[in-house]
Amino acid sequence: MRDRNFDDIAEKFSRNIYGTTKGQLRQAILWQDLDALLATLPEKIRVLDAGGGEGQTACGLAQRGHEVLLCDVSAEMISRAQAQAEEKGVSSNMHFVHSSAQDIGQHLEKPVDLILFHAVLEWVVDPQAVLKTLWDCLAPGGALSLMFYNANGLLMRNMFVGNFEYVLQGMKKNKRKTLSPDNPLQPEQVYHWLEQIGWQITGKTGVRVFHDYLRDKHKQRDGFENLLELETRYCRQEPFVSLGRYIHVTAIKPLEPRKNYE
């Protein structure tokens, strides 16, 4: 097995994710969390956006004056991110590396203060090993912003539309060249991995806790402002966190390592 590379479907990914209410809502909720997280960090920080795709979030951080390194295993995504940085006038604050998250350490001169790892963990073969690599790239006192595809949300969505046989068969992915992630993740497993490595989890947010379950799809667009208000109201409390199509976790790397950490 190999980690997923989006060179072959970059345009489809951009059109069907970034250009829809799915992407708009994801960015809105994500920035609510990021703004709160940035308030706890120094005024100017070094950021690694690992698997940063087209660079929407990375460019937003660069616009705020932070130094951002974006890496992606897809050369096409790197090209798109560079173009977006040029368009937004933030290229001077950004660096781009054609690299997997697993290999990014060799491109860093020193540890960073914030790592973004959004919608990537579910595409890699060994998620736990990638999280350990990112830990090694983060300075003590630094923060992680991790967003992953939630297996609970996948199950709930398929039950809503009546895909009973697919759920009974374990929701195995059949086609590789689709936008459906290869390895949906159980939230408790991800939390356990983070804590086992040494991170202290500081926040959990469900992303799209209502949007994808609406029977009337027109309301995703026509009622977007009301939908965003309700998503914001409930997305950081259970049971809605655990039902989000994605879950955004924030965590810090303690200044002092655990004595029993190996």
Automatic annotation (TrEMBL):
Q: Which InterPro entries match?
A: Cmo5U_methylTrfase, Methyltransf_11, SAM-dependent_MTases_sf
Kindly list the organism's lineage. Answer: Bacteria, Pseudomonadati, Pseudomonadota, Gammaproteobacteria, Enterobacterales
* Gene it is expressed from: cmoM
Family, as annotated:
Belongs to the class I-like SAM-binding methyltransferase superfamily. CmoM family.
Species for this entry: Buttiauxella brennerae ATCC 51605
Q: Which Enzyme Commission number(s) are listed?
A: 2.1.1.-
Q: Which GO terms describe its biological process?
A: methylation; tRNA modification
Which CDD domains has this protein been placed in? AdoMet_MTases
An example of a Pfam family matching this protein is: Methyltransf_11
Entry protein name: tRNA 5-carboxymethoxyuridine methyltransferase
- List the HAMAP family hit by this protein, alphabetically: tRNA_methyltr_CmoM
